[in-house]
Amino acid sequence: MPTQANFASLDGLHTFPRLLFHHAKTRPTAPAMREKDLGIWQTWSWADVAERVRALACGLAALGFKRGDNLAIIGDNRPHLYMMMTAAQCLGGVPVPLYQDAVANEMLFVLQDAGVRFVVVEDQEQVDKMLEIKEQLPTLEHVVYDDPRGMRHYSQTFLHDIHELMEMGRIHDRNHSDYLNAEIEQGHYDDVSVMLYTSGTTGKPKGVCQTHAAFIAAAQGGVQVDKMDGNGDILSYLPMAWVGDHLFSFAQALVAGFTINCPESGETVMNDLREIGPTYYFAPPRVFESLLTSVMIRMEDAGQFKQKMFHYFMDVAKRCGGDILDGKPVSGSDRLLYALGNLCIYGPLRNVLGMSRIRVAYTAGAAIGPELFRFYRSIGINLKQLYGQTETCAYVCLQPDGQVKSDTVGAPAPGVEIKIADNGEVLVKGAMVLKGYYKRPDATAESINAEGYFMTGDAGFLDADGHLKIIDRAKDVGKLSNGAMFAPNYIENKLKFFQHIKEAVCFGHERDMVCAFINIDVGAVGNWAERRGIAYSGYTDLAGKPEVLELIRECVEKVNADLVHDGMVADSQIHRFLVLHKELDPDDDELTRTRKVRRNFVAEKYKVLIDALYEGKANQFIETEVKFEDGRRGKVSADLKIVDAKTFPVVKKVA
User: What pLDDT digit, counting tens, does each position of 324-374 carry?
Assistant: First the structure.
């Protein structure tokens, strides 16, 4: 584990509460947090945040919160919820953020496993979830809510308005003025600072215990590589329970001192993004895919002249935009054309995306398609990939400026050691590795080997420049029946580059060919269909249209044409596919809350479809149970047509 010497550069500021109060003392009027409420941006300075954190911490203490207690936090990104994280840490407690869109029964396991006594929620919706399961939570004593709308007639004594909690805390602080300072002084860099639960793709979620030392080290490394300071802005809109948000919107914000901005709601994120114009942006590949899809839809609706100009200048960007961004040599004529393209296309496009001020943008959480990655860099957005897990504070590899490659996740980040095991698994060591899984010493022992390396479960290799290339999850990498490598995630990401494809699941391990399930993007395909006069009644109807199947077949065959040139996976061309009759959904347990495919669950649930693909059938009937947002259950059925795709002969290289 890290020693005190690791934190000498922080001058003793080795816990998050100390960092917060340091900013409040040295730059009290600088903006720390913003939130858009009722259409108006509200701002809290570092002094404001410190005062409220102090009040919240003392209020928790007055309710009986003690060192070692776990505090569940449930809601959208809200300043008071971020403040509550630090308030719990002030008292030696551990914040445990949960995914706000999970239903009550999904939250139950985490709340029971963590033995939670205190829960802080955003609003009435989350309060109702707690009331629904409270009888199954004998340890739960207090629920604090941030938004009082709709709470007037809730009379339970264990419910507390967050502003009342703050007033209680201010009184406590006046009566015990030395109490909180003494609690903060007891804080140690090796104390657990947060507990983040894994997504549970292969079983029950596990509580990942990360220390102050781990997240501060990860934050410092990122700040160092990307030269961040207190003058930046980030839009904090991704789930607080996700490790990426905790690194960027909490840890790095407290280390570097930049401003976090909370959008008004999930529906207003794009408008809020344009208004704030962040300098620092983070999103999983799915968000970048969605943004590109919206751009392409708008271009399809544009006039012919605009379309021609767009495609012409995008060809220029594809040819030289990335090199210009990296400071590499580019001909004078290309520079001139790119400058003209920047004036007419790229600049307005960045503005529409809310990315005009971005100095660095990151993506992680899943592999991003190389084509998608190159698109953003080509229009002047400094998009990079990072690599990490919940167990490593989302911090293993970073891409320094000038060393960005589309097919790698970067070089080992400062303080990180990487080793490739004999079976190809990526092993990592450093201050950012988890302290342990909560109440699971067995799982901790299984994840860290005898040499102290965390076993990531990913298969990859280091290239000639020392950059890490991830192939797939080690457990997902298989072989076709002819012995060729089968890396499903690699193929799926190529498919998802097309704006008409939202999700893909490929099969092929120990089989003679690769087949795929496709989810269409109903927005992109619906727009495409409407412009061609194709009427449809909903997702299932649209997904089964012959014209849509032909559209997806063209996308699949383009991927096959690309795969044939990639020696490692040339044999993994998709021979047959079908378009699913429903979207894969976390509520139906087909995706995790971070929208990763539960591959084994999907394979078992849709076994009849997989069998039909490999048995050469032309179509297959299926009926599937679905859950609606209001808790009701229903069934969706369809007779799915199976489509054969063109494949290309693989030319084997002669040794």
Answer: 999 999 999 999 999 999 999 999 999 988 999 999 999 986 667 777 888
Q: pTM for this one?
A: 0.80
Report the alpha-carbon distance of residue 486 to residue 322 in Å, rounded. Answer: 30
Amino acid at the residue 206: K
**Site of tokens 């061609």:** 532
Question: How far is Cα 62 from Cα 527, in angstroms, rounded to an integer?
Answer: 56
Q: Quick one: the chain helix, strand, coil %, rounded to 5?
A: 40, 20, 35
Q: Are 339 and 310 in contact (CB under 8 A)?
A: no
Cα–Cα distance between 139 and 136 in angstroms, integer?
9
Question: Token pair for residue 500?
Answer: 């008409």
d(CA 259, CA 262): 10
Going by CATH, does the domain composed of 15-187+232-278 fall within 3.40.50.300?
A: no
- Spell out a b/e string for 280-292, using b for 16 or more CB atoms within 10 Å of the CB, else e: bbbbbbbbbbbbb
* Torsion sign, CA atoms 150, 152, 156, 157: positive
Alpha-carbon distance 54 to 60, whole Å?
Answer: 10
CA 323, CA 375: separation in Å to the nearest integer? Answer: 12
Number of C-alpha atoms within 13 angstroms, CB side, residue 436? Answer: 10
How far apart are the C-alpha atoms of 171 and 166, rounded to whole Å?
9
Q: Kindly report the CATH number that applies to the domain delimited by 285-473.
A: 3.40.50.12780
pLDDT reported for residue 5 = 36
Structural domain spans, the chain = 15-187+232-278, 285-473, 478-644
Rounded Cα gap, residues 272 and 286, in angstroms:
19
Of residues 58, 281, 43, 72, the one with CA closest to residue 179: 58
CB environment 132-163: b (16+ within 10 A), e (fewer) = ebbeebeebebbbbbbeeeeeeeeeeebbebe
Fold of 478-644: GMP Synthetase; Chain A, domain 3 (3.30.300)
Give 267 or 47, the one with higher predicted confidence: 47
Length reported for the chain: 655
Cβ 30 vs Cβ 149: under 8 Å: no
> Is 87 in contact with 53 (CB distance < 8 Å)?
yes
- For the ranges 20-29, 190-199, 370-379, 507-516, which has the lowest average pLDDT? 370-379
DSSP string spanning 171-202? HHHHHTTTHHHHHHHH--TTSEEEEEE---TT
* Buried/exposed code over 227-263 (b: 16+ C-beta within 10 A; e: otherwise): ebebebbbbbbbbbbbbbbbbbbbbbbbbbbbbbbbb
Domains 15-187+232-278 and 478-644 share a fold: no
